[in-house]
Amino acid sequence: MIPLRWDEQPVGLRNPALVCAFTGWTDAGDAASSAVGVLARRLESELFATVDPELLYTMQPYRPQITISDGVASDLTWPTIELRMAVVRTAARDLLLVSGPEPTMRWQSLSETLVETAQTLGATMVITLGGLLSDVPHTRPVPITGIATDTELIAPIGAMLPDYEGPTGLTGVIHHEAQKRGLEAVTLLAHVPHYVAGIPSPKATLALVEAVELLTQVPVPTSRLRAASERYEQQVSEAISRDPERREMLERLEQMADLREVVGDDDDEIGEIADAQIQLNLGELPTGDVIADDFLEFLREAEERSAVEDDDEDEDETAP
Question: What is the rounded CA–CA span in Å between residue 149 and residue 314?
Answer without folding.
Answer: 35
